[in-house]
């Protein structure tokens, strides 16, 4: 999710499409939050790991 967000963020900045930049930023943020919660061993949504 983080990788997809970074790709969309870069494409959005290079092309100048603000919608792609916004979606990419949101995906990076959500992916980072899930990664941090998963790394601490806390189950999120009933799962310990998100792949």
UniProtKB/TrEMBL annotation:
UniProt keyword annotation of Membrane present: yes
TM spans (from-to): 6-37
Keyword annotations: Membrane, Transmembrane, Transmembrane helix
Name assigned to this protein: DUF4337 domain-containing protein
């Amino acid at each position: 999710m983080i990788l997809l967000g970074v790709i969309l963020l870069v494409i959005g900045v290079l092309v100048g499409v603000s919608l792609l930049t916004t979606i990419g930023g949101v995906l990076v943020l959500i992916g980072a939050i899930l990664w941090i919660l998963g790394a601490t061993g806390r189950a999120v949504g009933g799962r310990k790991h998100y792949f």
